[in-house]
Amino acid sequence: MSSQPTTQQDEPTSEQETVVDIAGLGHSFGDLDVLGDISFSVEAGTVACIIGPNGSGKTTLLRLITGLLDPDTGSVTVADDGDRRVGYLAQQPAFRPQFTVRETIEFYGTLVDVDVDSEAILERVGLSAVADRRVDALSGGMMRLLGIAQTTVGDPSVLVLDEPSSGLDPTMTRHITDIVGALAAEGDAILLATHDLRSVERIADTVFVIDRGELVATGGPEELLAETDTETLEDALETLSRGDDAVTVSAGLHGGESE
Fold it and tell me: 3-class DSSP state for residue 77?
């Protein structure tokens, strides 16, 4: 693990601004409380990673941020600077199989009513060489790259990525991680849920730890390691996800101690 994530900064720059502000967010499915009283913010030009055990509420949180679900309590405010509010990549992206890669990007342009430079968008994610390949001929990794590309159409304020490297080999995983870091370096705000903790250690500016629907910790990777006295994020997550014995990391935690 490197001692400093590639995009992490010690202090926010004057150019950074809050693009996502979440206050007291809560959601239930029937009698099942999935999220409770979640509050945090994400700045432009940063990578914020959401980590936590399976079933902790990560995907529900992302769907609330994108507007695909309505919160029961609290609010989500997203800066509205582009032609598209939020760019979203689901865990299992689905595109029209008969379309080419280029046609897919152009199609998303029609959905948000903007003219798109498909060449420039595909160049950002390394898909220029397969621009005329049909979607149904793409590898799993290329499909995820296309998914990331479509999130940028319309210049949204924030890109929300749900497990963008799940099931991919280490080489493609690193490639996707590098692209995410590059997009943040260009000024995009990235909100990413993942189980790939090594990638989190590499690129995260901020890590939000969710357990049982609660935000139990937030801070940079090195802060979480220091506060939990662990050497890897895997060990830190295990420490932070022990129910009643969970450690609450003080650095930057919103709303006090977890319940």
Answer: strand
What is the model's pTM? 0.84
Q: Dump pLDDT digits (tens) for 161-176.
A: 999 999 999 999 999 9
More confident residue, 1 or 171: 171
Q: Where are the domains of the chain?
A: 1-81+158-167+184-259, 86-156
CB 216 within 8 A of CB 228: no
For 25, phi and psi rounded to 5 degrees? -75, 130
Distance CA 226, CA 87 (A): 33
pLDDT class for 259, splitting at 50, 70, 90? very low
Contacts 24+ apart (CB under 8 A), 80-84: 80/157, 81/19, 81/155, 81/157, 82/154, 82/155, 82/156, 82/157, 83/112, 83/113, 83/114, 83/154, 83/155, 84/112, 84/114, 84/153, 84/154, 84/155, 84/156
**188: nearest Cα among 81, 66, 50:** 81
Chain position carrying tokens 């595909």:
122
Q: Which amino acid is at 129?
A: A
CATH topology of domain 1-81+158-167+184-259: Rossmann fold (3.40.50)
